[in-house]
Specification:
The N and C termini lie far apart (about 55 Å). α2 packs antiparallel against α3. The protein has about 170 residues and is an alpha+beta fold. The strands form three sheets. Strands 6-3-2-1-13-10-9-8-7 form a nine-stranded antiparallel sheet, covered by helices on one side. Strands 4-5 form a two-stranded antiparallel ribbon. About 25% of the residues lie in helices and about 40% in strands. The protein has a single domain, classed as Lipocalin (Beta Barrel). β7 and β8 form a beta hairpin.
């Protein structure tokens, strides 16, 4: 037979684990664009012309997002691209930091309001979490037929290891 004490402990463990499962994802950290995952999804699901798909596949994997509790930093290096015809271009990178406003969360999403990089246009972005260390967002674009369904995936970079003590 179960005692009242065992049932109480069991309920506490269940409630604690249930709360952890429903906790909001943690957006804070350093995130790197995942070229392979983004391109695989976009090739399978996005509504893109072949030249656009080629161009986007060359852009994915370069951006880093550094997010604190109050600041969002976009860091994109210079990126060399090439058309199917062999024409090469250099897209100039940039680094931009700005504050953002947390709008809301669920157990798998975080919504923020910020200003789009390199503009003064307000945006609402929803980050969708597949796990604590993998998230994606829809790329802010549309064509005449509506959304193109382009996603950019990001993976969380591990926290920097503390420097080793040279005396040891």
């Amino acid at each position: 037979m179960f005692s009242a004490e065992k049932i109480s402990v069991g309920l506490l463990v269940f409630v604690a684990l249930s709360g952890a499962a429903l906790a909001a994802p943690d957006l804070v950290g350093e995130w790197k664009s995942d070229a392979a995952r983004s391109t695989a999804f976009n090739d399978a699901h996005a509504k893109l012309q072949p030249q656009t798909a080629r161009f986007l596949s060359q852009l994915m994997g370069h951006m880093t997002l550094k997010i604190t509790a109050s600041t969002f930093t976009f860091d994109i290096p210079d990126v060399r691209t090439e058309t199917a015809e062999g024409k090469k271009s250099l897209l100039q990178g940039f680094r931009e930091s700005q504050s953002y406003q947390l709008l809301g969360t669920t157990d798998k999403t975080v919504a923020i309001k910020h200003v789009a990089p390199k503009s003064s246009s307000p945006r609402i972005a929803v980050y969708n979490f597949e796990s604590p260390d993998v998230m994606w967002m829809y790329v802010d674009n549309a064509d005449d037929a509506g959304m193109t369904h382009v996603r950019e995936y990001f993976f969380r970079r591990p926290a920097s290891a503390p420097p080793k003590d040279p005396a040891r």
